[in-house]
Amino acid sequence: ERADALPRDLEGVRVAVSAGGTREPLDPVRYLGNRSSGRQGFALARVAAQRGARVTLVAAHTADLGTPAGVDLVRVGTAEQLREAMHAAAAEADVVVMAAAVADFRPVAPAEHKIKKSDRDPDPVALTRNPDILAELVAARRPGQVVVGFAAETGDAEAGVLEHGRAKLKRKGCDWLVVNAVGDGRAFEVEDNAGWLLSAGGSETPIPHGSKAHLASALWDAVVRTSNF
Ligand code: CTP
Ligand code: CA
C-alpha cells in the first residue's frame, strides 16, 4: 500500500513489535530454531510507522528484510534476549505486539565448546521451557495498554484452527489474538496470510486471504477503533 494513502491515525502512538524466530544455542555454532521469516512482524511495524506511530521493532532471526523507514530496530537472538528487549520496549509502549516465533524450549546447558562427534551416538539434548513472554507482558500491562498475540494453528483431532485460537486467547489473556491457519504451505515463508482476529471481548473477525501488509492494516484498524489514543 502507498504510505501517502494511509490514514495518520497512529500519530504519536508508541508501538512495540517483536518479529522473527528465536535461536537457542546448543553450542557456539549450533542452535534450535524455527522457520519464521519475520515478514509479518516487519509488515506490522512498517504499516504502524506509515500511520504515524513511534515504533520499536525487536527482531530475532529473520529473512533478509530491509529495515522499515522510521522504525527503531533492536536485534536479538535468544528468547531470553527477546524477553529483555520486549519488557524494555513495552514499558514505553501504548501497544505491544508479539509476532515473534519464540522457541518454547531451549537446551538446558549449551556446550561451551563445539560438540565433537565420536564413534558412539550422542547423548540426548536436555531441554527446558522458555518463559512465556506474551503472558508476562499481559501480567505487566498498564491501564489502557493494548497487548496483541499471534497464533499459528493447524487444527488437529481435538479441535479446529478457530477453537485452538479461542482457547489460546483465554489462556494468554491478551486483548487481541491474530489466528493464522498454517500447514499446506500457508503462512510460513510465503507472502500471504489468512485467519481471524479475535478480541478479549469475544468479537471474531475473519481476515481474508491477502498480503501481510493487509493483515497488518486490519489489526491496526481494529486497535484504533477500540482505543482512545
Ligand atoms: N509466545 C511468547 N513466549 C513464548 C511462546 C510464545 O511470547 N515462550 C507468544 C508468541 O509470540 C505468540 C503467542 O505467544 O504471540 C502464541 O504463541 P504460540 O506458540 O502459538 O503459543 P504457545 O503458548 O507457545 O502454545 P503452543 O506452541 O503449544 O501452541
Ligand atoms: Ca509455541
> How does the major sheet shape up?
8 strands, mixed
Spans where pLDDT lies below 50 across 5 or more residues: none
Shape by Cα distribution: globular
Q: Which structural class fits the helix and strand makeup?
A: alpha/beta
What is the CA-CA span between the terminal residues? Answer: 24 Å
The secondary-structure element order is: EEEHEEHEEEHEHEEEH
Walk across the major sheet and give the strand order.
5-4-1-6-9-10-11-12
- Which small compounds were modeled alongside the protein? cytidine-5'-triphosphate, calcium ion
Proportion of residues in β-strands: 25-35%
Query: What's the rounded overall pLDDT mean?
Result: 93
Number of helices: 5
Q: What share of residues is helical?
A: 25-40%
The overall strand count is 12
Global Rg = 18 Å
Features:
229 residues, 25% helix, binds cytidine-5'-triphosphate, binds calcium ion, lyase, phosphopantothenate--cysteine ligase activity
What does this entry look like structurally?
The protein is α/β, with parallel strands linked by helices and 229 residues long. Helices cover 25% and strands 28% of the residues. The protein is built from five helices and twelve strands. It has helices spanning 39-50, 79-90, 133-139, 161-172, 212-226, and strands at 14-19, 24-27, 30-32, 54-59, 71-75, 95-98, 105-107, 127-129, 146-153, 176-181, 192-199, 204-211. It has an eight-stranded mixed sheet with strand order 5-4-1-6-9-10-11-12, sandwiched between helices. Strands 2-3 form a two-stranded antiparallel sheet. A hairpin with a 2-residue loop joins β2 (24-27) and β3 (30-32). α1 (39-50) packs across α5 (212-226). The model has no long low-confidence stretch (mean pLDDT 93). Bound molecules: cytidine-5'-triphosphate (CTP) and calcium ion. The site of cytidine-5'-triphosphate has 13 residues, from α3 and β9. Its EC number is 4.1.1.36, 6.3.2.5. Its cofactor is FMN; Mg(2+). Pathway: Cofactor biosynthesis; coenzyme A biosynthesis; CoA from (R)-pantothenate: step 3/5; Cofactor biosynthesis; coenzyme A biosynthesis; CoA from (R)-pantothenate: step 2/5. It catalyses: N-[(R)-4-phosphopantothenoyl]-L-cysteine + H(+) = (R)-4'-phosphopantetheine + CO2; (R)-4'-phosphopantothenate + L-cysteine + CTP = N-[(R)-4-phosphopantothenoyl]-L-cysteine + CMP + diphosphate + H(+).
